[in-house]
Amino acid sequence: GKKTGAYDQTALSPKFGIVFQPVKDQVALFANYQSGFTNKTGTDFRNKAFRPENAYQAEAGVKLDLLGGKLTSTVSVYDIRVRNIIRAYVPAVPDPSLPPFPQIQDGEQRSKGIEAEVIANPIQGLNIVAGFSYNDSKYTKADPDVAGRRPGTASSPYVANWWISYRLPAGALKGLGFGFGGNYASDNKIIN
Question: How far apart are CA 152 and CA 186, in angstroms?
Answer without folding.
Answer: 15
